[in-house]
From TrEMBL:
Pfam families: M20_dimer (PF07687), Peptidase_M20 (PF01546). This is Probable succinyl-diaminopimelate desuccinylase. InterPro entries: ArgE/DapE, ArgE/DapE_CS, Bact_exopeptidase_dim_dom, Peptidase_M20, Peptidase_M20_dimer, Peptidase_M20A. Its EC number is 3.5.1.18.
Length: 421
């Protein structure tokens, strides 16, 4: 153990450089930029070290196009004897930069023991950590049993359908025994799963008319105002009263939540160079996108029924009220048992490296474990990685170097316990 941890520490500079190299490839999603470039970088590094490298385009998947193809890379290192397969999966896409940065978002700047940049925390630092951990273990244990896999996959930030979902549908996890996803949940936490999610569109319908005579039309935006008002009076208080036994973090996510993602009604937003005025029309449609996060104790059918019943109450009170609800996507909650093999092994490794017990948590939002569980039929999966979750998607995103080193030690020790002789 001491030799393994000493070597991980000795490779700190290499870990920093690899994290910087990943950050400097701006894999923005949407629309899906530089996906092949980052996959070739990861594959080139591991291929030069004897790993089998496969580039996989998710042809036909949601988001894939000839302009922005969804590229993934899967790398595998065979051991000297038969055994189990441990798979590290990390998404290579990052969200939009946003405003408020004081550093170059794709510069990979190092300062005060941190590496800065978009995706540093979520989750290129985690990918780099898993690569260094796997390389270090393999270098010190050339006779290990089984196999190690590392994948860098697309589109987790937009559902993962061009990444892990596609790989799972193609059977790429059928031979895998253990999965570790190095999402930034803090180095002393093991994430067992996530809440459920239902995204939907609610459309209220009206009738177009001249804006100077709105009484001849029917305003869809006013109807949507009634929907939001009813949510405030009934649905939001109802959800606030529900609590889960899942160890969801942060504390506020222990309840059911509803986010009003967007609302669009009336005249479309014109191009920036348009200098004219809006046309005088009564809006005949308004669309509200909702993001409903639900608990393992809740049933998805009831989650949807509550919204439909709310809409029916409004229809009973408003003349000519017409609406439509359209499903966008849904994911059921998942939680790996605390006594699952990968949980126990990582828990022991955290204690060895940090001298403390790992905290079990559940993520407030979904991540690619949903596809490994639902499509890949593999429950022995966790998220464990360096980084502070609250920094994800924020300006001046960063990851701590010491945290990466410690998490790398945990990952290497987990490989030692699962595949070492």
């Amino acid at each position: 153990m001491d030799r393994l941890l000493t070597e991980i520490t000795a490779r700190e500079g290499e870990l920093i450089a690899l994290t910087q190299e990943l950050i400097r490839i701006p894999t923005l999603n949407p629309p899906g930029l530089h996906y092949r470039e980052v996959c070739e970088m990861v594959g080139g590094r591991l291929g030069a070290r004897g790993w089998n490298v496969q580039m996989v385009r998710a042809e036909g998947a949601r988001g894939d196009s000839d302009v922005h193809p969804r590229w993934n890379v899967v790398c595998r290192l065979e051991g000297a004897a038969p055994g189990e397969t441990v798979h590290f999966n990390g998404h290579h896409d990052v969200v939009a930069v946003g405003e408020g940065w004081t550093r170059d978002p794709f510069g990979g700047e190092v300062a005060d023991g941190r590496v800065y940049g978009r995706g540093a925390c979520d989750m290129k630092g985690g990918i780099a950590t898993s690569i260094i951990a796997a390389e270090t273990f393999a270098d010190l244990n050339p006779d290990f049993r089984g196999a190690i896999e590392i994948s860098a996959t697309a589109d987790e930030e937009s559902g993962g359908y061009g990444g892990v979902a596609y790989l799972a549908e193609k059977g790429r996890f059928a031979h895998v025994d253990h999965v570790i996803i190095p999402e930034p949940l803090n180095k002393d936490r093991i994430c067992l799963g996530h809440r459920g999610v239902w995204w939907a569109e609610i459309e209220t319908k009206g009738r177009i008319a001249h804006g100077s005579m709105p009484f001849l039309g029917d305003c869809a935006v006013r109807h949507m105002g009634a929907v939001i008002e009813e949510m405030e009076h009934t649905l939001f208080p109802l959800l606030a009263g529900r609590r889960t036994d899942m160890p969801v973090v942060p504390e506020g996510a222990r309840q059911s939540t509803l986010n009003l993602n967007s609302v669009h009604g009336g005249e479309p937003v014109q191009d920036a160079d348009y200098t004219g005025l809006p046309s005088a029309c009564v809006p005949d449609r308004c669309v509200l996108t909702i993001d409903r996060r639900f608990l393992i104790e809740e049933d998805i059918a009831q989650v949807k029924r509550e919204v439909t019943e709310m809409m029916e109450r409004i229809r009973a009170e408003r003349p000519e009220f017409r609406y439509e609800i359209r499903d966008l996507f849904e994911v059921l909650p998942t939680m790996t048992p605390e006594d699952a093999p990968v949980v126990r092994v990582v828990q022991e490794a955290v204690h060895e490296v940090m001298g403390k017990s790992a905290e079990f948590v559940v993520s407030p939002g979904t991540y690619d474990q949903k596809h490994i569980d639902r499509i890949g039929r593999l429950r022995n999966c966790i998220a464990y990685g360096p980084g502070v979750l609250d920094l994800a998607h924020q300006p001046d995103e960063w990851i701590g170097i010491a945290d990466m080193v410690d998490a790398g030690g945990v990952m290497a020790l987990a490989l030692q316990r699962l595949l070492g002789r």
